[in-house]
UniProtKB/TrEMBL annotation:
Controls the rotational direction of flagella during chemotaxis. It is found in: Cell inner membrane; Cell membrane. This is Flagellar protein FliL. One of its GO terms (cellular component) is bacterial-type flagellum basal body. One of its GO terms (biological process) is bacterial-type flagellum-dependent swarming motility. It comes from Parazoarcus communis.
Amino acid sequence: MAKAPNKPEAPAGDAPPKKGGKMLMIIIIVVLVLLIVVAGAIGALILLKKGGGENGDHAEAPAAVAPPSAVDLSRPPVFAALDAFTVNLRREEGDHYLQAIIALRVTDQKTADALKGFMPEIRHRINLLLSSKLPSEVQTIEGREALALEILDQVNSALGVPPPPPGQRMTVATPVQSVLFNSFIIQ
């Protein structure tokens, strides 16, 4: 009878090493996950330090040159054309009208399709912005470029994306990448 109780103890003796093996596996997995998180945090810090160098002017110049080389030639760009805008400009000296045909460069076709759902708000924001301008503000190339950036911020804001911090415009990925004027007529 002394031998019968020994057999049940043998499997019971094997069970604790299995639990210890499971515990060792869990510890290894936790350590690996922590290493991945730490490596990701270090990588993010390195990228942030490169983007925000000692002098903001040096960080901005390479960013302005980077996008043309970042174009993937295997994928054509995706544009979303907007209907023409015709607005009264703010009075400066007499009545002036602006007619603009705008296209938005977006990240992908899915984003272009999603814009349709936001189009009433996008058109509203662009109409308000265009009608708030003086003719003298939008007659120069610099004025039109500034207007394009304002429209870009308004469209991305309508999509729920806050405007990028000053000086980091080219480094922040947004659904709408740029605003293009296909026609711009002031009368």
